[in-house]
Structure formats: C-alpha cells, structure tokens
Write a structure and sequence with these properties.
Layout (H helix, E strand, L loop, with lengths): L21 E2 L11 E7 L11 E6 L5 E3 L2 E2 L4 H4 L9 H4 L2 H22 L5 E5 L5 H9 L5 E6 L2 H9 L3 E4 L12 E7 L8 H11 E12 L4 H5 L15 E2 L2 H10 L2 E8 L3 H14 L4 H6 L5 H16 L6 E8 L3
Parallel strand pairs: 6-7, 6-9, 7-8, 9-10
Antiparallel strand pairs: 1-5, 2-3, 3-4, 4-11, 10-13, 12-13
Helix pairs in contact: 3-4, 9-11
C-alpha cells in the first residue's frame, strides 16, 4: 500500500495560489494511456501552488510521468525568478565551486575523447547562466565553438556577460540556420520538457551526421527514491519534473528518434538526497534553521553523500542520476 504524503503547513497559506492550470498527457515513449499511481505530493521547494500532484507509471513501458501536469501557460509560475539554475553560479560557495570545477574539467576531457580532435560545435540546451559552457571553454580545446540556449532572459544575459554565445529560446523554437552541431547536451533538462519525444527528434535535426547527444537526467532507481516514494523524493522536483526515466525507457525514447546507444553511466546524486531530507523536514514542521541546513550545496551533507554514491557506483549499482550518450544514425 502506498503511503499518503504528509500535508505541508503552507497549504493553509492563502497567499499561495490554490490551483494552477493543468493538462492531461499520455506516455511519450510508447503512447500508452494505461497507468498506475506511483507517488503524489506538493511543491515543497517553491510553493507555487497548493495543488497535489500525481506521478504515474505507464503499464506498457514503465515510464514515470506527471499526470496531469502544469499547462505550458504556467511555466512562468512554476519557474519563479529565484529558480536555482537561473543564477546557480552566484549561489555556489567556494568549496562546492572548487570540486565542481574539478568534475567539469574531467567531463570536458571525456567529451574531447568522445568527439575527437578538430573544430567542433557544441550546444548546451538549458545553459542557465553559462556555468558549464564556461568550464568547457576553460578546460576543452580552444577550437571548440560553444553555444547555449535558455528560457530565462536574465540567465542568458549573465551567460553573455561571461563571454558565452547564448540565446533566449526554447529548444522547440530554436533555429540556428544551416549550421549543424557535433554535440548537443541536455543536463537535467529532458525531464522538464513537455514532449521529450519531439525534443529528441528536434535534437537529431540539429546534429551533424554521427553527432552525439548527451543526456543527464534523474534515474528512478536509487535508494533515496525508494525511501521517499511517498512523494517527498527530491528527484520528483514537483511539479517541474514532468517525465522520469530509467536507462531502459530513456534508451527507447532515443532509439525511437533515430539514435544508437553509445554509453550509460550512473552519476552522483547528492541534490536529490538533500532535497528529500528538506522535504521530509518541511512536512514535519521543522524550523527555518533546520531547513536552511538542508541546502543542496551544504558541504557537510555533500561529503558523506558523495562517498555513499561513489561506493554504490563502485559495486555496479545504479544511483538516482544518469548520463546517456547516443549517436545520430541514418534512418
């Protein structure tokens, strides 16, 4: 029997919208309409409404998705101006920034090995303030041409201030002209988009032949998801994560769109653990000091959780985060 989510105290706050516009959807991988309830909960992080939201699992392919979900007209509501990724670089503390840069340097070298030598064009979809593209500029080959798009105008302006070629655009509407990309990356983005199947087709159309598509997204597989399946799991990021994949369902999505699998890798997932702790503390009525401790950049929490996920990966276990690389193939 599924546990009922505890009801957070902010549901009594009449200054928060009681409800927002919604739309019903079907499975974007197999098109199925038959599903079962997985979890339900509230917008614990940003309190953009007092709605209770439901995650369901497709009985055809086991994709997990939010249904109903916010209407696209409500994007400005569920992504408020203080949304963390719009100005993430300004929030980082020194210790977190140091280790993040080390990890990004390793990622840049891995991308270089995957792409090979020579001039390459790379697009970061959902680039935010350009933090990762700046890391590629610093640690990758100087001949790389780096581009980014994001749906937040202020984030794009901050990226441009860092010297990044960034554009205010949704992927669905993005038109770079005749130029194709050698690699397109979506880091913690695909779970947010309204039509992941159409998004994958769009990416394929923007890639050069044999171009690489790199996706990082939550994996509904970790211990934290199992523990907090009552709706408090940080990876739900209610109601902004609309589609949640496993390696199997993500692989099916990309295969349907004309990609072949190159590699799958579990990733460290500290933020989902910490957000789960925060959500649990919130519904239990803990005070502001306790809630502030459960910050996703708190090094006192990051260190043991990094060790935990590293150990799991060492023994071949999946975590609550994943990276998949796929190659565009002719159809």
């Amino acid at each position: 029997m599924k546990r009922e989510p505890k009801r957070p105290s902010f549901l009594a706050d009449e200054s928060i919208a009681q409800t927002i516009a919604k739309e019903k959807v079907t499975c974007c991988v197999c098109g199925g309409t038959d599903s079962e309830l997985v979890a339900k909960g509230f917008d614990y992080e940003y309190k953009t409404s007092r709605d209770e939201w439901r995650y369901v699992k497709c009985k055809g392919c086991e994709l997990v998705y939010l249904n109903p979900r916010p209407a696209t007209s409500e994007l400005g509501t569920i992504y408020p101006v203080n949304y963390y990724s719009f100005d993430e670089s300004q929030r980082s503390n020194g210790i977190v920034t140091y280790f993040r840069r080390k990890l990004e340097a390793m990622k840049a070298r891995a991308f270089e090995r995957a792409l090979g030598s020579g001039k390459k064009r790379i697009l970061d979809v959902g680039c935010g303030d350009g933090r990762f593209l700046k890391a590629l500029a610093d640690y990758g080959p100087k001949e790389w041409e780096l581009f980014g798009i994001d749906i937040d105008e202020q984030a794009v302006e901050r990226a441009r201030a860092r010297g990044i070629q960034a554009e205010f655009a949704r992927l669905e509407d993005y038109d770079p002209g005749e130029q194709k990309f050698d690699m397109i990356v979506l880091f913690q983005v695909v779970e947010h988009v309204s039509a992941p199947d159409e998004m994958a087709e769009k990416v394929r159309g923007l890639l050069a032949p044999d171009g690489l598509f790199v996706v990082e997204t939550p994996d509904v597989a970790g211990w934290d998801e199992a523990i907090y399946r009552d709706g408090l799991w940080g990876g739900y990021h209610i109601p902004r994560h609309w589609t949640l994949f496993t390696p199997s369902t993500l692989g099916k999505l990309l295969s349907n769109a004309g990609f072949e699998h190159v590699s799958s890798t579990p990733l460290i997932s500290t933020s989902f653990w910490i957000n789960s702790f925060y959500n649990s503390a919130l519904v239990r009525g803990k005070g502001a000091r306790t809630l502030k401790f459960y910050d996703y950049q708190n090094p006192l929490l990051l260190a043991p959780l990094i060790v935990l996920d590293k150990l799991r990966m060492l023994f071949g276990a999946r975590t609550s985060n994943q990276r998949m690389i796929a190659r565009r193939v002719e159809r």
